[in-house]
Amino acid sequence: MIKTSDFDYYLPEELIAQTPLKNRSESRLLIIDKETKKYEDKHFGDILDEFSSNDVLVLNDTKVIPARLYGVKEETNACIELLLLKDLGENKWQTLARPQRRVKIGTIISFGEGILKAKCVKLLDQGVCEFELIYDGILVEILDKLGEMPLPPYIHEKLLDKDRYQTVYAKNLGSAAAPTAGLHFTNELLKALKEKGVEIIYVTLHVGLGTFRPVDEEEIENHVMHTEYYEVSKEAAEKLNKAKAEGKRIVACGTTSTRTLESNYKEGVGFREACENTSIFIYPGYKFKAIDALITNFHLPKSTLIMLVSALAGREFILDCYKHAVEEKYRFFSFGDAMFIK
């Protein structure tokens, strides 16, 4: 039985990156070979040398919503924080409310002196609630005015430039967190990859609770992933199927792209056009069907994300790589350095 504690590791707090680097591609890169179990210290710009014209790079083009809202409860003026996680349609949203004990069915929270209001319509477990949003105008513009970027709780520094928590290719608005492996890419680096003959394909997965909810179960098989919405266009599916047929290497940028591709690919069918939800949970023992290599950041101890990379490269080897990264003072988590598992 695989235990959550099997994915723990020691991380000094000072290695948790608090701010992004001035130049995205100057982050460090640990290149690891999952077959030979060897690794090499590089910088992210060096990733260009790891690609050839026989490679496909898959990027998640989701765009982060300024989804963190601070408001007051209408009846008592108590301060409430809402994190918008998932658009459920008809102005209803899955949210995290804090503190949840102050929220009941029918509670109305006012933001920006009533420019936006949220009425609680359902209480779920683990701090999750459903709210109906009440407003006049365009929600995206209201959130731009009132909302903050939903930085993870381990980042204590204020983000001065909202765009630094977006990838340079972010397009489809809907995420509650950035697909952080993509934060290292610059337009210049993407252009250089294309000039080398690398085909770049875009998919969309809106990051929600499924990606960053902690694992509370000690036996990981008992952990239930929340669903996240993804899209694969007809064009993307056709390009991916052609790449598979030609024996090209499919490199996923980030665990979100990986989960999208592994959810979408069906044996005997291949990749397919889809707009659907996934709750795929990838951990050691999983057989990858869609991807061959992965660009990713360094993940939290005992998280579903370190379990995913362990499934690809082996738990003991990944923990050895993490130990090396700690010793070499790599920067960890969302604004931290990267790893290329080839």
What does this structure look like?
The structure is a single chain. By secondary structure, the protein is α/β, with parallel strands linked by helices. It has two domains: 4-64 and 162-341, QueA-like, CATH 3.40.1780; 68-146, Thrombin, subunit H (Beta Barrel), CATH 2.40.10. It has seven helices and 17 strands. It has helices at residues 139-146, 187-195, 209-212, 234-245, 254-264, 304-313, 315-327, and strands at residues 28-33, 38-43, 55-60, 62-64, 68-73, 79-89, 92-98, 108-111, 116-123, 128-135, 172-175, 199-205, 228-232, 249-253, 274-278, 293-297, 338-341. The strands form three sheets. The chain has a nine-stranded mixed beta sheet with strand order 2-1-17-16-14-3-12-13-15. A hairpin with a 4-residue loop joins β8 and β9 (116-123). α6 crosses α7. The longest helix is centred in the last third of the chain and has 13 residues, at 315-327.
How many H/I helical runs?
7
Corresponding CATH superfamily of the largest domain: QueA-like
In the predicted model, the low-confidence regions spanning at least 5 consecutive residues are none
Structural class: alpha/beta
Q: Give the termini distance in whole angstroms.
A: 27 Å
Return the domain count. Answer: 2
Give the strand order, joined by hyphens, for the main sheet: 2-1-17-16-14-3-12-13-15
* Coarse shape: globular
CATH class descriptor name of the largest domain: Alpha Beta
Query: What would the CATH topology of the largest domain be?
Result: QueA-like
Element string (H = helix, E = strand): EEEEEEEEEEHEHEHEHEHEEHHE
Helix content: 10-25%
* Number of strand segments: 17
Biggest beta sheet attributes? 9 strands, mixed
Strand portion: 25-35%
